[in-house]
Structures are given as C-alpha cells and as structure tokens.
Amino acid sequence: MSAADPSGRQLLVVIDPVARRVDGESTRIARDVLCAGAVAKIALPSGPEEIVRALARRGRRRTVVIGDDRALLRIVGLLHRRRELAEAPLAWVPVGALPAVSVARVLGVPLGAVAAARAVLDGSERQLGLLCDDGGGVVLGGLWVPAGASSCGAPAVRGEGAPGGARGVPSGDGHQPWWSPAARTARTALTLLAGPAGRHPLPGAARLRVEADGVLLADLDRPVGRVAVAAVDGLAEVVVHQRACDHPVRARAHTVTVSGPDFRYRADNRIRGPVRVRTWTALPEAWRLTLPRPQPPGVTSPAS
Q: Comparing C-alpha atoms, which of 171, 172, 160, 167 is closest to residue 182?
C-alpha cells in the first residue's frame, strides 16, 4: 500500500491467478503503477471463494481487476448476482494474449499494462449497458448464434462507435473472435459481424426462432446463418442473417429470445450451451467502468 495518496483514491486490486501465471511481468508492472498512484490494497485470490471474500471487504474502494476477459466477467457476474453491480465502480488492466482479452478491445480498455494502469488512475468513469440471460449469465461485449458461425468472414467496416473510426477485418480461420482487434465498442463489434451476407458465405444453416420483444424475426421454417446481439444505447440490438436473403433483419428491443433444437452460442468469445431456448435482456447503465479520457481532436493516443 502506498504511503501517501493526495487525491484520496483507494483501490482494491484483485490479481487473477491466471494473470500471475501467464504474464507475471505485466502483472507486476500494473501493480507497481497502481500502487505508486493510489492507496491500493492487493488481493491475490486463489479461487472463487477468496474473490467473494475480497469483494465483501472492499468497502468504498474501487475494484481493479488484473486479468483476462474471464477474470472481469467473473467479478461482474458475481456483483450482478449479488445486486451490487450498479453501485460498485470497476476498472480493468487486461493481462493475456488475444483472444483472451478480446472484450477489452471492444470496451476500449488499453491492452498494454502501463497504459491500462494509467487509465485506471487518470481515466473517467462511464456507465455501460450489458445483456443478462435467463440462466444468470452476463454479456459485456456481444454474442452470436450459433457458435459455429465463427468461420464466416466480415468485410472491413468503419466502426460507428470506435474512436477515430477504427477499422477491422475479422479473419475467416475460425480462431479470431467475432469482433476484430480494432473494434472498440459493442456497436462496432455488431457492425463488423453484421456485414453483407451476400459477399461472404455463411456456415451451415441453423433452424432457429428469433423474437425481439415478442415480435417474430425468424422462424424454424427459414434457415438462419447467424444471429448477433449486443447492448447498444440501452437496448439489445439484434441482427439476423437468413440464408435466403442478402439483407439482414435488424431490430432493437428490451429482450431477445432465441429457441430451436439444441444450439450453442458464443458470448464474449466463450462458447455456451447447448440450450433449447435462451432469453437475453438489455440492462442500460448497469455497470460502471473507468476508461481512458477522450483525446482532444488532433491528439494521437499513445499505443496500447
């Protein structure tokens, strides 16, 4: 813990065990930067129970997660289930290689240890939306159905929500996450995924029924190539690509339900299921994350 903190900032730094094992150097650097700039209490949990205890004792400290996507999702999910997420400010220093930190690129969190730690200290807090499902899960970046749709490519698209109009071209090798490394927001991720289906062959069709706030977008009698859902502007934005149609069906709704024969889906680059029905609900301004402050026009951000 640092001896002085003139700004009055107090942090609970939760260092994921996977981060310590995978990249101990970046983990140490991030910890040192945070401890030099704020009063930091360090937690080194070895399992879920110790994470629960650390969060229960956080008091008024802002929780900083050092780890990959799963580390952040674990804490966000825990706070959501305890109904404490809206009142628990979070910050994140991603540690790990792509695609293990793909959600960080979607949210706009720097990937470099020093840049991310400085953003924790000097950034600004933003309220973000998310998707929660009827099984208790949360989705921060976005999801698509079926999981096998990862083999499809999407054209380069100017990201609508990306700083500076970032561009990205997801590969078609099935290994890159459905958002490109240049994508910075859920809207950008959704835009990349929802590229014109006519230019890029879709994988095997799935028999799915898709409803948005009870309105039918696709039914079992029309094969679906892929369905993408992301939290955008407080609602769930859904894009449905049907095999027989070049133009996707788009809608915004509070809830999106997908049903059909056992299917798997990919949420925040993790495969879930199989399930026969799943409903996602958009929660606007559901959580608070510290992000880098917007750069003035003409100022180039340091490399992450």
A: 167
Using only C-alpha atoms, the chain has a radius of gyration, in whole angstroms, of 20
Inter-axis angle of helices 113-122 and 24-37, nearest 10:
20
DSSP reduced 3-state for 242: strand
pLDDT digits (tens, 9 = 90+) for 13-42: 999 999 999 999 999 999 999 999 999 999
Q: Which run of H or E residues covers position 42?
A: strand 39-43
d(CA 120, CA 157): 30
For residue 76, the Cα-to-chain-centroid distance in whole angstroms is 11
CA distances from residue 174 to 159, 170, 269 in whole angstroms, order as listed:
21, 9, 11
Q: How many Å apart are CA 75 and CA 135, to the nearest integer?
A: 17
Q: Which of 220, 290, 297, 222 is nearest to 261 (CA)?
A: 220
Bridge partners of 67? 94
Q: Judge: domain 10-122, CATH 3.40.50.10330.
A: yes
What is this structure's pTM? 0.80
Q: pLDDT tier at 281 (50, 70, 90 boundaries)?
A: very high
CATH topology of domain 138-285: Tumour Suppressor Smad4 (2.60.200)
Alpha helices by DSSP H, the chain: 17-22, 24-37, 48-56, 69-81, 102-107, 113-122, 186-193
Residue ranges per structural domain of the chain:
10-122, 138-285
